[in-house]
Design brief:
Elements: E1 2-13, E2 19-30, H1 40-50, E3 61-64, E4 72-76, E5 79-86, E6 91-92, H2 105-109, E7 135-142, H3 148-170, E8 179-185, H4 199-221, E9 238-239
Helix pairs in contact: 3-4
């Protein structure tokens, strides 16, 4: 397991028992294959204590099937990120007919001659670029002090960077169990915003990109199973292909 120790931090987690918490550390905990325990609080406490860390833990913890030897970190400016990445359970999101922004969907359906043909399917991947198994976890911390709104926005910034990185590296924007933890130093210099154009947001995007990609590369170098070419080829996964009613509000 991994501990990201930053005393005096305000955390926000999207994982198990998530939400806001003030604590000295956040954790990323690997679980064995076939893991079936449901008493997750007790399990995390056992693992944290067994590793010699503060017990019982008061900070957020994420669970993953990826071994911590594949964890990778990146640092830039006021931000540090640690990530583990595996994709045995991809979550694909087909976007349908590709069309330029500003062209109504009806025009594509009616065969408007000014609308280009759909982009061809990307070439199949052979698994040589990266490999992984089960969940992408991102833990990001900034030495700047963010209010709760800016901290919540940092979750969105990190998730966007994670999705962009995975899409480029694997063909999937995420897995069925991805989670993000972000933290902000309580005694840091205040930062009113955390968007992509800010020092915090820009650094977070770059750190997430590099840490996630490095973790994927680490798993491939370890000789794990190849990256699935599709959800059908994966051990687990979902395709979100349901229809919606699009309307003008």
């Amino acid at each position: 397991m991994l501990e990201l120790r930053r005393p005096g931090t305000r955390w926000l987690s999207t994982g198990w028992a998530g939400g806001f918490a003030d604590a000295a550390a956040a954790y990323n905990v690997s679980v064995p294959e076939g893991f079936a325990r449901t008493d997750l609080d007790a399990y995390v406490a056992e693992r944290v204590g067994g590793a010699g860390f503060e017990a019982p833990p008061t900070g957020p913890a994420l669970l993953t099937g990826v071994d911590m030897r594949h964890a990778r970190a990146a640092r830039a400016g006021p931000v540090t990120v640690v990530a583990t990445a595996g994709v045995s359970n991809p979550a694909a999101l087909p976007t349908g007919t590709e069309r330029p922004v500003g062209v109504e969907a009806d025009a594509v359906a009616d065969g408007d001659p000014d609308v280009p043909e759909a982009v061809a399917d990307p070439p199949a991947r052979d698994g040589t670029e990266s490999a992984g198994r089960g969940t992408v976890n991102v833990l990001a911390w900034t030495e700047r002090r963010l209010d709760d709104g800016a901290l919540a926005n940092l979750v969105a910034v990190a998730a966007e960077a994670k999705a962009a990185t995975l899409l480029a590296a694997t063909g999937f924007p995420g897995t069925t169990s991805d989670a993000v933890v972000v933290g902000s130093a309580r005694d840091g210099d205040p930062a009113p915003f955390s968007g992509s154009a800010t020092a915090v947001g820009g650094a977070a995007r770059a750190c997430v990109r590099d840490a996630v990609r490095a973790s994927l590369d680490a798993r491939y170098a370890a000789g794990d199973r190849p990256l699935p070419d599709s959800v059908a080829d994966a051990e687990y996964g979902v395709v979100t292909d349901r229809d919606t009613e699009v309307f003008r509000p």
